[in-house]
Amino acid sequence: KSGIGKVNSAVGTQLMITHFSPDYVINTGIAGGISKEVKVLDIILASDTMQYDVDVTKFGYKLGQIPRMEKYIFNTDNNLLKHAKASLKNGDKYKIGRIVSGDKFISKKSTKQFLDEKFGAMCADMESGSIGHVCYINDTPYLAIRCISDDADESSHINYDKFEKEAANKSAELVIDIIKKI
After folding, report:
1. How far apart are CA 69 and CA 111, in angstroms?
2. How many CA atoms lie within 13 A of 63 on its CB side?
3. In angstroms, rounded to a whole number, what is the distance separating the alpha carbons of residues 35 and 115?
4. 133 is in which domain, residue-wise?
């Protein structure tokens, strides 16, 4: 467990890579659903990740782009994605798409709409983008998997409390099944 938030997840990922040199990193957890296609307890397999709360557009960078870095959308590993799809259970509802990250719990419909329109996000969390960033810098393949715990709107806190544990367990079980197949 790295803890919640971009800094905690980045530090935890870097420590893991530095001390254990893993062949790959699989990050799992829960997220708020952003896309209209996504429902509570759906699984999201990340095609890529990025940080939505980076904004230095006044200096000519794109929204989400980290200054002096060409790469700011971090693609996940196709082989890990293939194993993840093969590990899904019959009846699991899943989508493949972008996971965006920021140090904020999304609880407003207007923020949800912004993340959908500007980034084409399937869901939003507080870790995947920074983990993707660290893995990119270290040339370590990675995959982010999220299970939707809430609708990322004004009802988020209610759904989150109700579905947090179930969503986290569902996401973790998938990772265990992936590791068995690799």
Report:
1. 26
2. 11
3. 9
4. 6-181
In a domain, 148, yes or no: yes
Residues 76-100: tens digit of each pLDDT: 999 999 999 999 988 889 999 999 9
| Tens digits of residue pLDDT in 38-54 | 999 999 999 999 999 99
Strands 43-51, 142-150: pairing kind: antiparallel
Residues 6 or more apart whose CB falls under 8 angstroms from that of 103 comprise 5, 6, 7, 53, 126
Task: Calculate the alpha carbon distances from 137 to 33, 88, 95, 140 in Å.
Answer: 28, 29, 27, 8
| Residue 1, domain member (yes or no) | no
- Residue 148 is classified by DSSP as E
Q: How far apart are alpha carbons 165 and 20 in whole angstroms?
A: 29
176, pLDDT greater than 80? yes
Residue 163 belongs to a domain with what CATH number?
Answer: 3.40.50.1580
Q: How many domains does the chain have?
A: 1
